[in-house]
Amino acid sequence: MTTNMALKAWVEEVASLTQPETIHWCTGSDAENQELVRQMLGSGDLIALNTETHPNCYLHRSDPSDVARVEHLTFVCTSAEADAGPNNHWMPPQEAHAKIDALFEGAMRGRTMYVIPYCMGPIDSPLARCGVEITDSPYVVANMRIMTRMGSPALARIEREGQFVKGLHSIGDLSPERRYIMHFPEELSIKSVGSGYGGNALLGKKCHALRIASHQARSEGWLAEHMLILGLESPQGETHYVAAAFPSACGKTNLAMLIPPEIYQGWKVWTVGDDICWMNLGEDGRLWAINPEAGFFGVAPGTSKKTNPNALAMLDRDAIFTNVGVTADNQPWWEGLGRDEPAKDWQGRDYVKGNGAAAHPNSRFTVSIKQCPAYSEQAEAPQGVPISAIIFGGRRESLVPLVFETESWARGVLVGASMASETTAAATGQVGVVRRDPMAMKPFCGYNFADYWQHWLSFAEKSDRLPKIFHVNWFRKDSEGRFMWPGFGDNMRVLEWIIGRCKSSADAVATPIGNVPTADSLNVDNLDIDAGTLAELLRVDRAGWQAELEQIGEYLGSYGERLPEGIKQEHRRISDALA
Ligand code: SAT
Ligand code: MN
User: Nearest-CA neighbor of 513 among 487, 542, 473?
Assistant: First the structure.
């Protein structure tokens, strides 16, 4: 229980609405986790995997109609519709409460209601924020235990500070017709019903750490972003930290823990986070970042010894797998693993070749960040890490160069605001359609994008030591549909150039959209890439960009009156330079 009266009253109120059989306050202890796992093995919520190859690893199969985020059922419920913006689905708060409370009525009958106090960020960090999730899903508890600092220390902080974000979750009847994910940023609260999957159900993640936190960050003067954080250490022992925003399922986890190619002797990448980044200005004028999460909820398919050896190394113990296939000897399996054969698919059916994928394309692993071989001790630093460069990137098979540097903060904000990417399986809906995904925050910004861009722009008035902003694209394809850039570990070459630009030691050519590497400033030693392909990857196609800028202008124009002058100005400047 708790000494915080607001929390106590809320738990009582929720219990009388949802009518659980029992209430369990989570402490986060090992014994508690073991008991939960035991119960879930009994109920079939978890399936034990091969204990020799994968000790303490479990498989969860979600309902086949519940396998990804559902953006069309996700609402931001501010009092004024314009505050949620054209980028969000909106409902008036009262109507939203009424609609969703009706679905919570009696929803936990016969079930245990878990109360999960959690902290997003290092437990003693001034940048961290706490929340409490109430859920009837033991699977959510097990995941929150890995993904957040959960249990007694978080409750102690809540009792000290008094403030916390309220998250109410029930799997309900898992029916897509009775599924909603509602956010009430003005009340610092979240209500989610009808889904047990990932970002819909682990409320600390996208719901709190992005949608609610972005809203909070705006009023408090910081940034809550959909970014990985990595440290790049040179052979001389100098470490630069980089934050990078890519849409879901575009390789953030791989980039966050990449292993540099052999020619990069003595270089090392340190992982601080793979998905979310909270940044605040330090007294020194630099942006300091923390990873609010404590684990990875990573995409399994495509993860192999070749693409991400660090990920593979952390997945052979103490991990939860969701919707992957299994081999005949009960090891987890997914497309692109590059070893063994599946015997059962993600729905537990016998695997038949040619009859669909064994692992769902949005199948996931949940694992503690501390198991990552590249784990950075700085992930626990209360003050965070100082960011030298911010990278934006999308999945674009044409036009967008491998990398370019923006000439100023305001230009970087425009480039972030104009980002576009092909959609992926991380959300339900069509895959492979190019859509605008500003700062990779389209599904996650808890308020009007126009105000969000203004908030970003405002940092230039507060500091002259802000990070440099870059844009990258690992996903260019040639006329035969083959990827032109090898990606994965070789992205190190682009990171080196980026850090080189931050230190004024790497060369660049100015173009209307920004600075691209000179032919010899990007290290392509030992890389099987011909000069023509490299030139194409770095080329700025004027006519193509003119058309792109026109589309960007139309998109930005849809934000109407609220669109910041600074954004219009930068858009005009690039358009003029291209004319
Ligand atoms: O399901 S999550 O929203 O947590 C994963 C993602 O889409 O990035
Ligand atoms: Mn994400």
Answer: 542
Residue whose CA is at the smallest distance from ligand 1 atom 8: 248
Residue 547's pLDDT is 97
Residue 545 falls inside a structural domain:
no
When the pLDDT of each residue in the chain is averaged and rounded to a whole number, the result is: 97
Residues 100 and 142 in one domain: yes
Tokens of 2: 């708790």
Question: Which secondary structure element, helix H or strand E, spans residue 476, and what is its range?
Answer: none
Is residue 129, in this structure, part of any structural domain at all?
yes
Q: Is residue 551 part of a domain?
A: no
Q: Is any atom of ligand 1 closer than 6 Å to the C-beta of 359?
A: no
pLDDT of residue 20: 98
Of 210, 248, 360, the residue with max ligand 1 atoms within 8 A of its CB, to mutate for a pocket test, comes to 248
Taking the centre of ligand 1 as the mean of its atom positions, its distance from the CA of residue 249, in whole angstroms, is 8
> What is the spatial distance between Cα 408 and Cα 4, in angstroms, rounded to a whole number?
46
* The predicted structure's pLDDT at residue 221: 98
Domain boundary among 221, 241, 275: 221
Ion ligand 2 neighbours (CB, 5 A) are 248, 275
Is residue 527 located within the same domain as residue 454? yes
Specify the pLDDT at position 374: 98
Confidence at residue 519, expressed as pLDDT on a 0 to 100 scale: 85
Q: Which residues pair with 216 in a beta bridge?
A: none
206 ligand 1 Cβ < 6 A: yes
Which domain range does residue 175 map to?
5-44+70-221
Same structural domain, 38 and 108: yes
pLDDT at 314: 98
CB of residue 248 inside a 6 A radius of ligand 1: yes
Q: Which numbered ligand comes closest to the C-alpha of 70? A: 1
- Ligand 1 atom having least distance to the Cα of 299: 5
Domain count, the chain: 3
Q: Provide the whole-model pTM.
A: 0.98
Q: Which residue, judged by its Cα, is nearest atom 6 of ligand 1? A: 248
- Annotated active-site residue in 130, 250, 277, 445: 250
428 and 399 in one domain?
A: yes
pLDDT for position 87 = 98
Half-sphere exposure of 51 (CA within 13 A, CB side): 2
Residue 184, domain member (yes or no) = yes
Ligand 1 atom nearest to CA at 297: 4
Residue type, 146: I
Find the 56 Cα to ligand 1 centroid distance in Å.
24
Q: Is 77 annotated as catalytic?
A: no
203 alpha carbon, closest ligand? 1
- Tell me the C-alpha distance between 560 and 450, whole Å: 9
pLDDT tens across 54-66, in order?
999 999 999 999 9
Kindly report the protein residue whose alpha carbon is nearest to atom 4 of ligand 1: 199
Contact 415, 469 (CB under 8 A): yes
Distance 443 CA to ligand 2 centre (A): 10
Residues 6+ away with beta carbon under 8 Å from 156:
none
| Ligand 1 atom at shortest distance from the alpha carbon of 226 | 8
> Which CATH number goes with the domain that contains 126?
3.40.449.10
The answer to whether the Cα torsion of 533, 535, 540, 541 is positive or negative is negative
Cα of 248 to ligand 2 centre, how many Å? 5
Residues 393, 469 within the same domain: yes
Where the chain has pLDDT below 50, the residues are none
Q: Are 128 and 121 contacting, i.e. CB atoms less than 8 angstroms apart?
A: yes
- 428 & 466 share domain: yes
Q: State whether 321 and 461 are in the same domain.
A: no
